[in-house]
Amino acid sequence: MNSDHINTVWFLLCIELLSITVSFSQTVQQEKCCVQIEDKLEYTTDKNDSLTPVNQLLTGLRYYATGTHQLVVGDTFSINKSTVCRTVHKVTRAIASLRPKYVKFPTTTEERRDVMNLFFMRSRLPGVIGSIDCVHIPIQSPGGDDAEIYRNRKCYFSINVQLVCDTTNYIII
Questions:
Q1: What is the pLDDT along the chain (173 residues), one digit of tens a residue?
Q2: Which burial class, exposed, middle or buried, applies to 166 when counting CB atoms under 10 A from its CB (0-12, 13-18, 19+)?
Q3: Between vectors from CA 110 to CA 108 and to CA 111, what angle results, nearest 5°?
Q4: Residue 7, C-beta contacts closer than 8 angstroms, at least 6 positions apart
Q5: What sign results for the dihedral spanned by CA atoms 17, 22, 26, 32?
Q6: Rounded CA gap, 15 and 19, in Å?
Q7: Which of 30, 44, 51, 114 would give a disulfide with 55, using CB separation of 3.0 to 4.6 Å?
Q8: CB–CB of 126/116 below 8 Å?
Q9: How far apart are CA 166 and CA 121, in angstroms?
Q10: Residue 110, helix vs strand vs coil
Q11: Contact present, 132 and 124 (Cβ < 8 Å)
């Protein structure tokens, strides 16, 4: 796995955590996400009954949510494994392109002061602008010579994801 892939996986997890804190229905979230990435998923031709942007998004989300093999996701939607592979890659890049819009660190002095005040009011800790946590996200073995670098101390393959949130659990970095 290259660093672009790891960054993309990290961002997808951020988006998932953001969706947990937002009180929209699942359908509204999918439509909102699809509208934002639709131009990146649109095919210029209808050749070979190409998947609509909504179906591409749903295929990608199903793959992320289940962590199962692409063949199983393909069977679920009656599409070929290679189509699932291309679709997941395309949806991943499209969602990752939204990162600058949703993941922001407070940049101005005023923004930082506001966040520090909120943290102080909540926890009585002065000067804090974010809280950090890590989690191991299970993955399938990537195979190859470098596969063992993804094996964690509990003996399963994972990617260690680290997030920084503000007082409202909004991911800031």
A1: 444 544 455 555 555 544 444 433 444 455 566 677 877 887 766 666 678 888 888 888 888 877 778 888 888 878 888 888 988 899 888 888 888 887 778 889 998 899 899 989 988 989 988 888 888 888 888 888 888 988 989 999 988 888 888 888 777 76
A2: buried
A3: 65
A4: 96
A5: negative
A6: 6
A7: 51
A8: yes
A9: 13
A10: helix
A11: no
User: What's the predicted TM-score (pTM) here?
Assistant: 0.58
Spatial separation of the C-alpha atoms in residues 128 and 17, rounded to whole Å: 21
Contact between residue 130 and residue 172 where contact means Cβ atoms under 8 Å apart: yes
Domain boundaries, the chain: 3-100, 104-165
| Run of H or E including 134 | strand 131-138
H helix count then E strand count, the chain = 7, 2
